[in-house]
Structures are given as structure tokens and as C-alpha cells.
Amino acid sequence: MIKVCVQIHCISLNYNLINMNQIRSHQTSISNARTSNRKQPKRRSAGLIPCGSILILSLCCLSTLALYSLVPVKTTVLFLGIDYAPHKSFVGRSDTIVLLHFNTLRPYVGILSIPRDLWVNLPGFGENRINTAHFFAESQQTGSGPFATMQTIETNFGVKPDYYVRIRFDGVKEIVNAMGGVTIKLDKPIGGYQAGTHHLSGEKALGFARRRQGADDFFRMEQGQILIKSILLDLLKPAKWVRIPAVIITTSRVVETNLPLWQLPRFGILILRVGIQNIDSRIIDRTMTTPYTTDQGASVLLPQWDKINSLIDEIFHKAY
Questions:
Q1: 122 — phi, psi (to 5°)?
Q2: Which of 11, 127, 298, 316 has the highest Cβ tally under 10 A?
Q3: CA-CA distance, 320 to 18, in Å (whole number)?
Q4: 53 contacts: CB under 8 Å, gap ≥ 6
Q5: Count of C-beta atoms within a 10 Å radius of residue 110
């Protein structure tokens, strides 16, 4: 009897446990069903950038571009054309001396040509023609010529060039040939050519830039500026763009400079803003100098500093 009761009791407990497990299983199924029926929040695609981020990124890019285009505001580059030197060295006189001034705020691009026979003070060498500063320094130490000329410019004109570019005259011929020639437009007869349009090879372009008219160099400085502007105008023509790689390769071979490459696009943007025809081309002309013969019989030009300084202020020291 006792054994029967115990068995009945065990059966009852097992039955209850089975029922409880079934109930729990049923409740779990209901809970899972409810959870699955709830609306899941939509996930944002990781590949999409919010509009606000795009706007901020665009503003940052524009600000960086504006900063790059405008700073530094003023930059002055000394351009030197070196006379023929032995063994393709740079031990020669700087027969072409040009200051290029870039002001990104005005915006403004100015060119000032300085006569090679201008009689000035050469730091460390005494008084002499300005074009001898390069020769004296370069003959003593290779690579020092441009810096001696930069120091001479600063001492006499109060203008400190930031960079220099120097080229031998035969290099000009090679660059123009790499361009396929250059077209010049003349408003008056000059450099052995009549008024009108002329297409020049490298040899003829160099001859045009160096040709003298009369007994002084003032016409030659004007011809040099015409050639510089004509080269820039030609390189902007789409027909010449296929030649730009060859021009870059040739220029890198014949030109020596401390001008960093990152400056070049800035200058290009500024020149486009100003317009090549609106570049301010100036010359220290005969009205600003006095012809003079030294004790050694050399014909030089004495500077009239009051007139020259007024010109310097207009180009380099004008307020923003």
C-alpha cells in the first residue's frame, strides 16, 4: 500500500514538472513572437555621409584653397638672364635683371626691368655696374651670384626679393623651341620687326629680346618684357597645351631657381585673375638716369633716386 502511494506521488510530481516545463516553453514562444513583431529601428547606411558633413568638408576645402591662393600676400621674384659663360656655367654678367612682384590681395602683377649699366653700390665689392654683382660673386663661389644680386637689389632699392630664377640666354632659345615657337604682337616697329603679328623660332625670339636699338639698353628691356608676356599668352592657348610637358622638361633643365614648385600654381591663378594684358610693365628708363663716363672710360648710368624711389613705391610698397 505504501509502495503504491509513493509511486502515485512520484507520478504526480513528474506530471506537474512536465506541465510547468510546457507552460514555460509556451510563455517563451509568446515572448519571442512579441519581440519579433516589434518594429526594428532603421539602420543608417555606413556608406552615406550626412549633408552637414559634406557642407563642412566643402567649406574646409574652399577655405584651404583661398588661403593657399592669398597667402603670402606679397611675393617678389628676381629674374636674371645670364650672358654667355664658358662651359655652360653661370659665371657671367646678369645682362637681364627683372623684378616680378605678385600681390594676391590687390590683385596685382608687376614687372620692373633694371638697366644693366646702372651704377650702384655692390655690397662687398664697392661701386660698379649692377650686372657685375652676379659675376663677381659667382666667380668666387658657385651658386652665390643670385644671392649677391638679391643683396644688391635690397641695398639700393629697398626691395628684398623672396626668390630668384636665372637662365642662360641659350636656354631661352630652347624653351621657345619646345613651345613650337612664340607669337608676338607689336603695336610699333621694335626689335627689327614692323608693327603686326610675328611668329618667332627660338633663335629669332632670342635675337628679338637682345637686339639693341640706338646706343642704350632701354629698347632691349622693353623687348624682353614683350617676349615674356608673349610666352605666357601662348602657353594659355589650348593648341599649345600638348607642348606643356616638353616645355616643363626643358625649363627644368635650363633654369636654376630656389622658387618652390607649390608657388607656381598660385602665380598662375593670380595671372589669370589679373589678365596678362593688365600686367603692370615698368622700366627704369632714361628719364630716371643720367649718362656718365667713369674715370676708366666706362659708359654707365647714374640713378636719379628720387624718381626711381617713387616708381619703387608704386610697384612694391603700395597699400593693399
A1: -100, 110
A2: 316
A3: 94
A4: none
A5: 20
At residue 181, the 3 state secondary structure works out as coil
Which residue from 318, 314, 320, 304 is spatially nearest to 156, judged by alpha carbons? Answer: 304
Please tell me what DSSP assigns to residue 115.
-
- How far apart (Å, rounded) are the C-alpha atoms in residues 2 and 196? 136
State the pLDDT confidence band at 87, using cuts at 50, 70 and 90: confident
Within 13 Å, how many C-alpha atoms sit on residue 246's CB side? 13
Query: Count of residues for the chain?
Result: 320
Nearest Cα residue to 296 out of 126, 146, 150: 126
Question: pLDDT for 26-73, tens place per residue?
Answer: 455 545 545 445 545 555 544 556 777 787 777 777 666 655 556 678
User: Per residue in 220-272, pLDDT tens?
Assistant: 999 999 999 999 999 989 999 999 999 999 999 999 999 999 999 999 999 99
DSSP-derived secondary structure letter, 193: B
| Residue 2 identity (one-letter amino acid) | I
Contact, 88 vs 169, CB < 8 A?
Answer: no
d(CA 10, CA 308): 122
Reported as a single tens digit per residue, the pLDDT across 108-134 is 999 999 999 999 999 999 999 999 999
One-letter amino acid at 301 equals L
Answer for the pair 128, 114: CB distance below 8 angstroms, yes or no. Answer: no
All domains of the chain in start order, with CATH: 66-316 (3.40.630.190)
Percentages helix, strand, coil for the chain (3-state, rounded to 5) are 50, 20, 25
Decide if 96 contacts 116 (C-beta within 8 A). Answer: yes
- Rg from Cα positions in the chain: 38
Q: Which residues lie below 8 Å from residue 71, measured CB to CB, with a gap of 6+?
A: 104
Judge whether 107 and 70 are in contact, CB under 8 Å.
Answer: no
Q: Which residues contact 80 (CB under 8 A, 6 or more apart)?
A: 94, 96, 97, 98, 134, 145, 146, 149, 164, 165, 166, 167
